[in-house]
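hey m, so remember when u said the tokens were messed up on ur end? i reran from scratch. heres the input so u can diff it against urs
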Amino acid sequence: MRLRSVDLNLLVALNALLEERHVSRAALRVGLSQPAMSNALARLRATFGDDLLVRTPRGMEPTTRGLELADQVRQVLRQVERVLTPDSGFNPSRCEHRFVLRMSDLLSLLFLPAIARALLHEAPLAALEVVHLSPAQTVQALEADGCDLALSMGLAHGGSIARQALLPDRMVCVMRQAHPSARGRLDLERLLALQHLRVSISPVDSRFVDDALTRMGRSRRVAANVPHWLVVPEVLRATDLVAVMPERLADVLAREADGFARRDLPLPETAFEWALYWHRRHEGSAQHAWLRGLVMRAIGTPRSRASSVTPTKPRPSPPVPAKP
């Protein structure tokens, strides 16, 4: 296929079609009429030699080829936009960019309200897309320009990824206030005698509990695995299960609902730092520097710590006394 024979505007239509999975909505999104978008889909099918999207009882669904193209097309359009958009004299109030931010549901609960509020205030024409990726997928997305920034912790990466420490945190054990173990010191034997609720999609508690116990030749009793943090408070409230979580999340639970107790973990290392990650290709971008600054300001990162990139290895934070 010769590039000169391809109308690159069709990639804009393809991206909208693959994301909306609806011809009329895709047309509205890119400012085309419905017949024009249908015509674009026909041309795309001819160009790629594939249906790309097919009608099903559930609506339009991408073909295997369509799914393969989705991320590639999105990345190409982001790179073209970056090339064609002048970075000098960047003005957030006129920015119409769609920023992609990697956050788990835990981090979204902690930080997304403030980030969204700041973005709407400073760049009302911009858009925000939040994606939840595994650590390995996060690094791949940063390398492939699939996301602008990632909020995570302890992310293993190469020298092409920059890291900025954001906020200190530590892991604590949380249970309902009336739990038999809610009073007194929680030593290792008491911790291991409890039944645990684990969030399987999150590596945080596994990294600080399961890995630490494995090094000690011990293991905990995981009575239930759930895929998301959203259900954790209700499960803890209804059972004698306990959960290990970041203390900042425990603080949110304490503000939003009564009836939870927290205890220090009787393990050697419980402190860590939430961090911001991005690809070094963006180091000289005024737009990207503004975005990083917006995120740091929104979540309250002190300016003195936001001025430089920290080492790859997280620095341990001093333990924070447990709250009653």
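this time it looks ok to me. DSSP finds twelve helices and eleven strands in the chain. if urs says something different then somethings off w ur setup not the seq
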